[in-house]
Write a structure and sequence with these properties.
three-stranded parallel sheet; 81 residues; elongated; Rossmann fold; alpha/beta; 3 helices
Length: 81
């Protein structure tokens, strides 16, 4: 699939708020893709406030949603130990 094939279509992407995420989101938006961004809240110790990801992604022009997956992550961890 090429970028041009996505023009006018909806695409969801997982983002961290980092440079790569912002670059991909902005490129897709500027190419006419209807982008929706998602980030998972897994209680990451390196994220003081997961909502900072939403702020970092805002200039890209695509809505960003935080998906609370803390419970699911805890359950998955207990399954493997």
């Amino acid at each position: 699939m090429k970028l041009a094939d996505l023009k006018g279509r909806k695409a969801g992407i997982c983002v961290s708020g980092g440079l790569d995420s912002r670059t991909v989101a902005k490129t897709l938006v500027e190419s006419g893709v209807d982008v929706v961004c998602f980030t998972a809240d897994l209680a990451q110790p390196d994220e003081a406030d997961i909502n900072d990801v939403v702020e970092k992604m805002a200039p890209c022009g695509a809505p960003t949603f935080v998906v609370d997956l803390k419970q699911e992550m805890a359950e998955a961890c207990f399954e493997v130990i």
